[in-house]
Amino acid sequence: MIRKRICDKCGTPREPDSKRCKPCRKAYLDVRNKRLAATPIDLSKIDFSRLITCPKCDTERKCYLPSGRRRNCPECSRVYRNEPNNNAKAREVSKTWRDGNRERFKEFNLRWRSSNPEYRKQKFAEWKAANPNYSREYRTSHRKLVNFHKAMHQARRTNAEGNMSPSEWEQVKDLYGRKCVDCGKPESEEKLTIGHAIPLRMGGSNWPSNIVPQCRNCNSSQGGFKIHRLADPTEVASLELNSVAA
């Protein structure tokens, strides 16, 4: 006689590796997450350097759980999650917990990264050794995005106020007709670079309202001391308001 697998809570059919069906399991996790969120754990009292033993393989590892409870080591947990019957369930449980405990999850990650700087360096070195050509290939295939972030980085080095996203840069170019504000060359003939109506050397900001498109020759020849006329003030102000709100 084949024994039916039914939920302990509602009596409906359940999965073989769980005592409850999916709706009852989800309801249980929601109640548990609310209870945990109502009683936050003081992470400053947890000794993250303490060694605990994995209940499956009996290996010692650092205590990295916010609660400090005895759980499987990362290798055993990875093997469990990769099993066909457990992969989707593990993802669902992790996502449910993160959605209900965003602040705790963020606080724990910050504390763990500060407590394990060498681990992060080691993992990054291993990844870099396994992917030696990734940076070069990324810069080649994302040339515009790399140049944009390089320009933003140079503006931040001057302690300029404000910031801009790639989509806002496209809006600025549309606002000026995708032409250089000095020589009038279109983007199809000459590559447009990020210029500033009031140069950064003269106290200009890096908000979209102060950004103007310039070709490379005009941008480099102005010497950082030429003030440009802005486009429609109303549309320029709306760009800055959208940037501040974002």
Q: Roughly how many Å is the radius of gyration?
A: 27 Å
Count the domains: 2
Strand and helix order:
HEEHHHHHHHEEHH
Which structural class should the secondary elements be placed in? mainly alpha
From the structure above, extract its key features.
disordered C terminus, 246 residues, DNA Binding (I), subunit A, mainly alpha, 2 domains, two-stranded antiparallel sheet, two-stranded antiparallel ribbon, 50% helix
Give your account of this protein's structure.
- The protein has two domains: 22-128, no CATH class; 143-245, Orthogonal Bundle (DNA Binding (I), subunit A).
- It has a two-stranded antiparallel sheet with strand order 1-2. A two-stranded antiparallel ribbon has the order 3-4.
- The chain has 246 residues and is mainly alpha-helical.
- Helix content is 50%, strand content 7%.
